[in-house]
Amino acid sequence: MLFKSGIGFIVLEMPCSFYERVLKKKEVNGLAAVHLEILKEDSRTRARLGKLHTPHGVIETPVFMPVGTQGTVKTITPEEIKEIGAGIILSNTYHLFLRPGHELIREAGGLHRFMNWDGAILTDSGGFQVFSLGDLRKIKESGVEFRSHIDGSLQFLSPEIATQVQMALGSDIVMAFDECAPYPCTHEYAKDSLERTTRWLKRCKETLTTTDTQALFGIVQGGMYEDLRRQSASEIIELDLPGYAIGGLSVGEPKDLMYEVLDYTVPLLPREKPRYLMGVGSPDALIEGVMRGVDMFDCVLPTRIARNGTAMTRYGKVIVRNAGSAHDFGPIDPSCDCYTCRNYSRAYIRHLIKAEEILGLRLMTIHNLRYLQTLMREIREAIKEDRLPEYRQKCFSDYGYEFD
Ligand SMILES: [Zn+2]
């Protein structure tokens, strides 16, 4: 039974019918499938500490999301992703649309069941990949025609199709089909592109009918132009979505320029909604992004460089495949608690990488992902204890000011 009070609905603890339970859930929460609970806001920076509630678990924020492009975080199992401490991963609409096809994943019961991952999943819309195809794609108002990178076949993605694909995948967070303008680009191009992105976003919103289990995030575009970022933010906020992403950054611009764009863009977004900075995962940019008020990040960087034999550590990058590691029988990072550092030496991992053994790639991936989970946990602790700027300073001096 529900009574309305001055501050919302109060639920009396008494047996209630199914209908009342449904009502209770809707009215008391009154929240989207995915929503952010803000636990603390930093007094000296724009950082926030929070909990992201999703249909597949609660995730502490700020958070880094490992990337599982093809429905797998390359080389490791979902059990290992969990052991690393990640509760949410990202997967790619473009790749899964082309192979194995979203209908097959729907038939399997959705992506969570297909890949045996019961944590949360965010799927990108495919826009970024499609626009990265350059000459192989053609932009129209209806959508984008492109050639598959797999077999060269002609394909088409639109706001409606990208959303329907993500509905079939059953991801917790559905990203809007947007156009990510290249860097550099003219003011005119960036303006046309962001206005199309807004029109496309409205079509994504109309298509998504599963808002009880899936949350659509809009994407702020506008290149490196402040007036356009303002225009984009104000247009998409009007649609009152469960979350907002900042796109079109980390596309080759200098980091200082990215921070400048964040400085004026993040404050335009509603305080109570999650904010996601797309494609950022270097340790320095994670810290700088958090300090500017970002809650969520993703990037292929840690897993990609792991497979090239480069480890991320709090003392800087370690190129394990280099000769310097050949006789080093200590761990990659003595301060790291990951499975790799607890059990294997640099010398052994270097041998595996040189010999092109798959285990080498697995061990490196586990380490790099754990490093970023540890970094994010320490960032959260620093926010909680009001010492984020000091923590930033320590990270930068430990790392040798050579983050990238
Ligand atoms: Zn480690």
TL;DR of this structure?
The chain has helices at residues 18-29, 78-84, 93-98, 102-107, 111-115, 127-132, 159-169, 187-207, 226-237, 255-265, 283-291, 301-307, 339-343, 346-354, 358-384, 388-399; strands spanning 2-5, 8-11, 35-41, 48-54, 57-61, 63-65, 88-92, 120-124, 137-139, 144-147, 154-157, 173-175, 215-220, 243-246, 275-277, 296-298, 310-313, 316-319.
Explain how this protein is built:
With 404 residues, the protein is α/β, with parallel strands linked by helices. The protein is built from 16 helices and 18 strands. The protein has an 8-stranded parallel sheet with strand order 6-16-15-14-13-12-8-7. Strands 3-4-5 form a 3-stranded antiparallel sheet. Mean pLDDT is 92; it is low at 1-28. It binds zinc ion (ZN). Zinc ion (ZN) is lined by residues 332-333, 336, 338, 340-341, 367, 370. Zinc ion is lined by residues 332-333, 336, 338, 340-341, 367, 370.
